[in-house]
Design goal:
rod-shaped; 179 residues; transport; single chain; Golgi SNAP receptor complex member 1; mainly alpha
Length: 179
């Protein structure tokens, strides 16, 4: 990223990044509300994350500018850009959590359907007990993987709520001990 020297260049760069983030967040909102799983989500998520980091760097450069003797107007402008960054970051993580919850819900429903189908097949004599046990083992493995993914996501957000993350991390250890 090119390091602008003047306050106006920093301000223009911040506005440009905020505009790009608004466009991408709008697309991401539509994807999250419309679908559970889409290949474009990962590209869009990484793009938004990259833009958020760039905006954070620009805000840091603006902070350095203000610290070196900026006026009250410049300080107010910086505060507004920092608030915008915070709002966009919070919305992104809220949408990301919502998408993960939708994926998890869909996966649980699929596991329930498979479990129910296995029970029906067993009752009707459609599959052997060995096949039923293999399906159940696969279902348990998927559930354990989901718990692992969820706990890793929680731990990656430690700054958000350390107590909750620690409790979840501890319960994850116990879950795998029981399993």
């Amino acid at each position: 990223m090119e390091v602008p020297i003047s306050w106006d260049a920093l301000r223009k760069q911040a506005r440009k990044l905020e505009s790009q983030l608004d466009e991408q967040m709008s697309s991401y909102r539509k994807l999250v509300s419309a679908k559970v799983d889409d290949a474009d989500n990962n590209d869009l998520e990484s793009g938004i994350d990259r833009l958020l980091k760039q905006l954070q760097q620009v805000d840091s450069q603006m902070q350095a500018w203000v610290s070196s003797g900026g006026s009250e107007i410049v300080s107010h402008t910086l505060t507004r850009h920092q608030e915008i960054l915070q709002d966009l970051t919070q919305e992104f993580y809220r949408l990301l959590s919502r998408l993960r919850a939708k994926r998890e819900h869909a996966s649980l429903l699929e596991d329930f359907r498979e479990s129910n189908q296995t029970r029906v097949d067993l009752e009707e004599g459609g599959i052997s007990e060995e096949q039923a046990l293999l399906k159940e083992h696969a279902s348990i493995s998927r559930s354990a993987g989901q718990v692992h993914d969820t706990s890793n996501h929680c731990l990656s957000l430690q700054s958000w709520n350390c107590g909750l993350c620690w409790d979840f991390h501890v319960s994850k250890k116990y879950y795998f001990c029981v399993n």
